[in-house]
Amino acid sequence: DATGHGVQAAMVTMIMKSECDRFLSRSQSISDIMFQINQLFVQRYLSVRMLFSAILVEIDLTENRISFVSAGH
Questions:
Q1: Residue 63 to residue 32: CA distance in whole angstroms
Q2: How many CB atoms lie within 10 A of CB 37?
Q3: What are phi and psi of 26, to 5 degrees?
Q4: Chain centre distance of CA 34
Q5: CA angle at residue 55 from 44 to 68, to 5 degrees?
Q6: Which tens digits make up the pLDDT trace of 9-49?
Q7: C-alpha to C-alpha distance for 68 and 73, rounded to whole angstroms
């Protein structure tokens, strides 16, 4: 969920998706993935002042378990 509306929010959402896709293919815990995403955005985009909320949900059908981690601005 990117702050704002219109073109700026759409651009932020596109950047978030492209950056996050790199981490989601790795077999790590979702809390580790969220930590790495946070580190990346702080390093690359802090000066742009992009703010967004995020949630990662892992659904394990084998174990009948749902895990999630959330982060916010």
A1: 20
A2: 19
A3: -85, 150
A4: 6
A5: 130
A6: 788 788 888 887 888 777 788 898 889 888 888 888 777 77
A7: 17
Amino acid at 72: G
Provide the Cα torsion 28, 68, 60, 1; round to 10°: -90
The reported pLDDT for the residue numbered 71 is: 87
Question: Which residue type does 66 have?
Answer: I
Closest by CA to 3, choosing from 37, 54, 38, is 54
The residues with which 56 forms a beta bridge, in sequence order, are: 69
Select the more confidently predicted residue: 6 or 2: 6
| Cα→Cα distances 53→6, 10, 27, 56, 60, Å | 17, 14, 23, 11, 23
The confidence band for 60, taking pLDDT boundaries of 50, 70 and 90, is very high
